[in-house]
Amino acid sequence: MRADWLPGLSEAGRQALVDYGVSLVVDLRSERESDEEPLPLPVRREPMDPRPVPAAWDWPSMREAYLALADRYRGELARALTALGSAEPPVAVHCAGGRDRTGIACGMAQWLAGVEQDAIAADHALSDESWAPFNAEWLSQAPDETERERRRRVSKPAGRTLVEVLEEIEAREGIRSFLLGAGADERALDRLVARLRGEA
Fold first, then answer.
1. From residue 115, how far is each of 21, 108, 184 by CA, in Å?
2. What is the pLDDT of residues 81-102, one digit of tens each?
3. Best CA proximity match to 29, nearest among 21, 38, 41, 20
4. Which 8-state DSSP code applies to residue 171?
5. Cβ atoms 147, 59 nearer than 8 A
6. CA 42/CA 195 separation, integer angstroms
7. What are phi and psi of 123, to 5 degrees?
8. Rounded to the nearest 10 degrees, how much is the dihedral formed by the CA atoms of 10, 148, 59, 133?
9. d(Cα 1, Cα 89) in Å, to the nearest integer?
10. From residue 3, how far is each of 62, 141, 163, 167 by CA, in Å?
11. Do residues 56 and 68 lie in contact, with contact meaning Cβ atoms separated by under 8 Å?
């Protein structure tokens, strides 16, 4: 399951995760983003903090931000997908908004499973639909115009950007090779792919 800020769930929402049978939550947020009450489930943390990555924080474009995040946090992505493939399903993965860091991780998994590119883009676009009602308030809370403009760039709908980023990584080195080279467990990746394809 691709999700946004799971620790922000109500008590009923937290119990729903347990009742649904989620065996593991992979949290891609940084330490500074995670000071809330722990979830009532095992959590694997693979922090992908955008702040130390200029292109990911300044966000000149989504493409540049995603490529920079993927390159800087190869190991975290490899370990996250290994964890998702190693745990008993269902599993959940989240960051703060569920679109960017989580979108890259889930997009890579979908790509490996042979999901059609239009379907990957459509799934990714669901986050923009979910966050659209909150964007105006987020922009209004910016402390200055520079930050407000950055937030405008961040909140711009993704379109096919994730697919284009995946295509670029695939052409450059192959997404599977990208993950294996960063330490992903091959058998775990195979299990993850089989589950996404409904073969396991």
1. 25, 10, 20
2. 999 999 999 999 999 999 999 9
3. 38
4. H
5. no
6. 20
7. -65, -45
8. 40
9. 10
10. 19, 24, 19, 23
11. yes
Cβ–Cβ < 8 Å for 59, 153 = yes
Q: At what angle do helices 62-72 and 74-86 cross, to 10 degrees?
A: 80
CA dihedral sign, ordered 174, 178, 179, 183? positive
C-alpha torsion 125→29→146→65, nearest 10: -60
Q: How far apart are CA 152 and CA 136, in angstroms?
A: 9
How does residue 52 score in pLDDT terms, banded at 50, 70 and 90?
Answer: very high
Kindly provide the residue ranges of all beta strands, DSSP E only, lying in 33-123, ordered along the sequence.
43-45, 91-94
Residue type, 170: E
Contact 85, 189 (CB under 8 A): yes
Chain segment 102-122, per-residue pLDDT in tens: 999 999 999 999 999 999 999
Q: What are φ and ψ of residue 104, in 5° steps?
A: -65, -45
Q: Are 196 and 115 in contact (CB under 8 A)?
A: yes
Put the strands of the sheet holding 43-45 in their side by side order: 2-3, 91-94, 24-27, 43-45
Question: In whole angstroms, what is the distance from residue 127 CA to residue 99 CA?
Answer: 6
- β-bridge pairing 43-45 and 2-3: unpaired
